[in-house]
Amino acid sequence: xxxxxxxxxxxxxxxxxxxxxxxxxxxxxxxxxxxxxxxxxxxxxxxxxxxxxxxxxxxxxxxxxxxxxxxxxxxxxxxxxxxxxxxxxxxxxxxxxxxxxxxxxxxxxxxxxxxxxxxxxxxxxxxxxxxxxxxxxxxxxxxxxxxxxxxxxxxxxxxxxxxxxxxxxxxxxxxxxxxxxxxxxxxxxxxxxxxxxxxxxxxxxxxxxxxxxxxxxxxxxxxxxxxxxxxxxxxxxxxxxxxxxxxxxxxxxxxxxxxxxxxxxxxxxxxxxxxxxxxxxxxxxxxxxxxxxxxxxxxxxxxxxxxxxxxxxxxxxxxxxxxxxxxxxxxxxxxxxxxxxxxxxxxxxxxxxxxxxxxxxxxxxxxxxxxxxxxxxxxxxxxxxxxxxxxxxxxxxxxxxxxxxxxxxxxxxxxxxxxxxxxxxxxxxxxxxxxxxxxxxxxxxxxxxxxxxxxxxxxxxxxxxxxxxxxxxxxxxxxxx
Length: 481
What we know:
Elements: E1 2-6, H1 41-46, E2 51-57, E3 76-80, E4 91-93, E5 100-102, E6 105-106, E7 109-110, H2 119-133, E8 140-145, H3 162-166, H4 174-199, E9 206-211, H5 240-243, E10 247-251, H6 270-277, H7 294-299, E11 307-313, E12 318-323, E13 326-330, H8 354-358, H9 361-370, H10 376-386, E14 406-409, H11 426-449, H12 474-480
Parallel strand pairs: 1-8, 1-9, 2-3, 2-8
Antiparallel strand pairs: 3-6, 4-5, 6-7, 9-10, 11-12, 12-13, 13-14
């Protein structure tokens, strides 16, 4: 089986609270990374005979080379070690320091030839080259973590070829128009990767996964003008706009196709899901938080997951957890600055071009290999069924999580409009109190086994100015002097 994952997802099989990654991302000059005792997805798959390659974003630590991709299960790596970069210069500005340096490399070595070339194009070419050169008798795991549509630099966050930006003149907002240009290139990348698999006769035995790792940062740091509407909140918040994302799985190996299973799933579930699909026994993975969703995906049956710990961040002062239909939030991020609904779009900006889908390269390939074709009615039906709709005209019950915990029926109320813990009537009070007690007990149990956050202060030893203006594994360098 060939696994192709286009995403920037977790390789972990545990919740962030059990790996020390629950507080904040790894900032550029900080000397820490994902613990080396964590066994990652490529390492597990390699034991099953796979060859694993990573392209694009890493962002799991690099202060020592032992934390970098080729030391953690990947045969090759082409991309950047930090969380973002300029799309053309491939320079990375430190988030809270005056450091800046180059970050594009092949394995451990800087790739200066990449300067002036668009990141999305570079990563697409690398991915398709890997597919073309691959020996089909060996199972392949290809992880493609695009930079797009993440913001680039602070001065120029939205970057795309000008001709692609110009092709969206119907979008009046100039920032959204640039964002569309970035997304067009990401969309083309998916098509090129899919076409490479088809050309190399690999699709019959491929599992193709496309998934986002978080909601768009509509406002605030690294703003990219993406929209999570009508969901509340955005990236780095506990609201659905920050944690609920779109995804799809395509494979001829799925028993039931063209479905919208919408399972309750946590990002840690990808590891056991793909491991099982590869023929592995999930019992061999040991004690993990992830649950295999392969049977749920393949047969369109109910998810085996009942509970998700979204996060416990006692430094910031918030916790969020879901159990079946209900979600509990206590506290929030950024002092509640992003606790609202934003990114609404006017009808004129959301035209859906069905003909473009029907005439796409991917649709043509699917028609060849499936013996049937997409129809306008099926496309519209799938889109309509997957669209989240909320009634903002009804009576809202406000949530002020710094004052009192909030409780939502998240299935009926995905936009988190009605806080059940806001002045519940006598009939509801006992139910709400019982739910809150249950969630507090669950959070207490998670806290007992949680790891301490691993975040540490950045160091001036990381300054790229010391290393030819390049981000490197500085701790190894310092100790080799």
